[in-house]
Design a protein that fits this description.
single chain; mainly beta; Immunoglobulin-like; 2 domains; four-stranded antiparallel beta sheet; three-stranded antiparallel beta sheet
Length: 149
Protein backbone atom coordinates (compact mmCIF):
# COMPACT_ATOMS: atom_id res chain seq x y z
CA UNK A 1 0.00 0.00 0.00
CA UNK A 2 1.28 3.47 -0.83
CA UNK A 3 2.41 5.84 1.89
CA UNK A 4 0.84 9.29 1.99
CA UNK A 5 2.16 12.55 3.26
CA UNK A 6 -0.93 14.42 4.32
CA UNK A 7 0.87 17.74 4.23
CA UNK A 8 2.64 18.67 1.01
CA UNK A 9 4.18 22.07 0.44
CA UNK A 10 2.13 24.22 -1.93
CA UNK A 11 -1.04 22.18 -1.44
CA UNK A 12 -1.97 23.41 2.02
CA UNK A 13 -2.65 21.31 5.10
CA UNK A 14 -5.19 19.03 3.37
CA UNK A 15 -3.59 18.57 -0.06
CA UNK A 16 -2.36 15.04 0.64
CA UNK A 17 -5.93 13.88 1.16
CA UNK A 18 -6.52 14.28 -2.59
CA UNK A 19 -4.03 11.47 -3.25
CA UNK A 20 -5.72 9.28 -0.65
CA UNK A 21 -9.17 10.05 -2.10
CA UNK A 22 -8.02 9.12 -5.62
CA UNK A 23 -6.60 5.83 -4.34
CA UNK A 24 -9.85 4.99 -2.51
CA UNK A 25 -11.90 5.93 -5.59
CA UNK A 26 -9.82 3.47 -7.58
CA UNK A 27 -10.48 0.69 -5.06
CA UNK A 28 -14.25 1.31 -5.12
CA UNK A 29 -14.35 1.59 -8.91
CA UNK A 30 -12.74 -1.84 -9.24
CA UNK A 31 -15.68 -3.30 -7.30
CA UNK A 32 -18.48 -1.27 -8.84
CA UNK A 33 -17.34 -1.14 -12.47
CA UNK A 34 -16.52 2.55 -12.46
CA UNK A 35 -18.14 5.83 -11.49
CA UNK A 36 -21.81 6.05 -12.40
CA UNK A 37 -22.06 2.42 -13.53
CA UNK A 38 -24.60 0.04 -12.10
CA UNK A 39 -22.86 -2.79 -10.31
CA UNK A 40 -22.50 -5.90 -12.39
CA UNK A 41 -25.25 -8.40 -11.55
CA UNK A 42 -27.79 -5.86 -10.26
CA UNK A 43 -30.94 -6.03 -12.35
CA UNK A 44 -33.12 -4.12 -12.81
CA UNK A 45 -31.53 -0.71 -12.44
CA UNK A 46 -33.79 1.32 -10.14
CA UNK A 47 -34.28 4.96 -9.17
CA UNK A 48 -36.29 5.75 -6.06
CA UNK A 49 -37.18 9.27 -5.04
CA UNK A 50 -39.59 11.07 -2.75
CA UNK A 51 -41.90 14.02 -3.33
CA UNK A 52 -44.19 15.67 -0.82
CA UNK A 53 -46.96 13.07 -0.70
CA UNK A 54 -45.51 10.01 -2.45
CA UNK A 55 -42.52 7.93 -3.49
CA UNK A 56 -41.73 7.20 -7.12
CA UNK A 57 -39.80 4.12 -8.19
CA UNK A 58 -38.65 3.55 -11.75
CA UNK A 59 -37.08 0.29 -12.90
CA UNK A 60 -35.51 -0.45 -16.28
CA UNK A 61 -36.98 -3.72 -17.55
CA UNK A 62 -36.31 -3.83 -21.31
CA UNK A 63 -37.81 -6.75 -23.15
CA UNK A 64 -40.09 -7.75 -20.28
CA UNK A 65 -43.86 -7.78 -20.52
CA UNK A 66 -45.90 -6.38 -17.60
CA UNK A 67 -47.23 -9.88 -16.90
CA UNK A 68 -43.68 -11.11 -16.24
CA UNK A 69 -43.16 -8.64 -13.38
CA UNK A 70 -44.50 -9.15 -9.86
CA UNK A 71 -44.83 -6.21 -7.49
CA UNK A 72 -45.46 -6.83 -3.79
CA UNK A 73 -45.99 -4.27 -1.05
CA UNK A 74 -45.85 -5.22 2.60
CA UNK A 75 -45.78 -2.43 5.17
CA UNK A 76 -43.16 -0.02 3.93
CA UNK A 77 -41.24 -2.55 1.78
CA UNK A 78 -41.80 -2.79 -1.96
CA UNK A 79 -40.46 -5.87 -3.76
CA UNK A 80 -39.97 -6.45 -7.49
CA UNK A 81 -39.67 -10.02 -8.76
CA UNK A 82 -39.51 -11.61 -12.14
CA UNK A 83 -37.46 -13.53 -14.62
CA UNK A 84 -35.85 -12.07 -17.68
CA UNK A 85 -35.45 -14.50 -20.53
CA UNK A 86 -33.22 -13.73 -23.47
CA UNK A 87 -33.72 -16.11 -26.34
CA UNK A 88 -30.77 -16.73 -28.58
CA UNK A 89 -32.11 -16.52 -32.12
CA UNK A 90 -28.87 -16.87 -34.05
CA UNK A 91 -27.37 -20.02 -35.46
CA UNK A 92 -25.27 -22.16 -33.15
CA UNK A 93 -21.71 -20.94 -32.85
CA UNK A 94 -19.30 -19.02 -30.70
CA UNK A 95 -20.65 -16.16 -28.62
CA UNK A 96 -18.36 -13.17 -29.06
CA UNK A 97 -19.99 -10.88 -26.53
CA UNK A 98 -22.77 -11.32 -24.01
CA UNK A 99 -23.63 -8.34 -21.83
CA UNK A 100 -27.39 -8.73 -21.44
CA UNK A 101 -28.21 -10.70 -18.34
CA UNK A 102 -31.01 -13.20 -17.99
CA UNK A 103 -32.49 -15.09 -15.10
CA UNK A 104 -34.62 -14.55 -12.03
CA UNK A 105 -34.36 -11.36 -10.02
CA UNK A 106 -35.69 -10.01 -6.74
CA UNK A 107 -35.13 -6.49 -5.46
CA UNK A 108 -36.63 -5.14 -2.24
CA UNK A 109 -36.63 -1.53 -1.07
CA UNK A 110 -37.57 -0.26 2.37
CA UNK A 111 -39.30 3.11 2.29
CA UNK A 112 -39.02 5.60 5.17
CA UNK A 113 -42.81 5.64 5.74
CA UNK A 114 -45.82 3.42 5.11
CA UNK A 115 -47.58 3.51 1.77
CA UNK A 116 -51.32 3.74 1.11
CA UNK A 117 -51.69 0.35 -0.61
CA UNK A 118 -55.11 1.21 -2.06
CA UNK A 119 -53.72 4.10 -4.11
CA UNK A 120 -50.53 2.56 -5.57
CA UNK A 121 -50.26 2.97 -9.35
CA UNK A 122 -48.02 0.97 -11.69
CA UNK A 123 -47.40 1.66 -15.38
CA UNK A 124 -45.06 0.02 -17.87
CA UNK A 125 -43.97 1.91 -20.95
CA UNK A 126 -41.01 1.52 -23.30
CA UNK A 127 -39.32 -0.99 -21.00
CA UNK A 128 -39.58 1.21 -17.89
CA UNK A 129 -41.76 0.33 -14.90
CA UNK A 130 -43.07 3.36 -13.01
CA UNK A 131 -44.53 2.92 -9.54
CA UNK A 132 -46.24 5.77 -7.74
CA UNK A 133 -46.47 4.93 -4.05
CA UNK A 134 -48.58 7.48 -2.11
CA UNK A 135 -47.71 7.90 1.55
CA UNK A 136 -50.37 7.14 4.15
CA UNK A 137 -52.10 10.30 5.35
CA UNK A 138 -50.45 11.73 8.41
CA UNK A 139 -52.40 11.10 11.54
CA UNK A 140 -54.09 14.24 12.72
CA UNK A 141 -53.27 15.32 16.25
CA UNK A 142 -55.99 14.22 18.60
CA UNK A 143 -57.06 16.36 21.47
CA UNK A 144 -57.60 14.40 24.65
CA UNK A 145 -60.06 15.77 27.17
CA UNK A 146 -59.20 15.51 30.83
CA UNK A 147 -61.98 13.99 32.89
CA UNK A 148 -62.74 15.55 36.23
CA UNK A 149 -64.31 13.73 39.11
Amino acid sequence: MAQYRLYRPGLGPWGGFDDLRREMDGVFNRFTGGPGDVRRGVFPAVNLYESGDSYTLTAELPGMAPGDIEIALEGNTVTLRGERRIDYTGEPGAVHRRERQSGAFRRAFELPADVDTEKVEATHRNGVLLLRLPKTPERQPRRIAIQTS
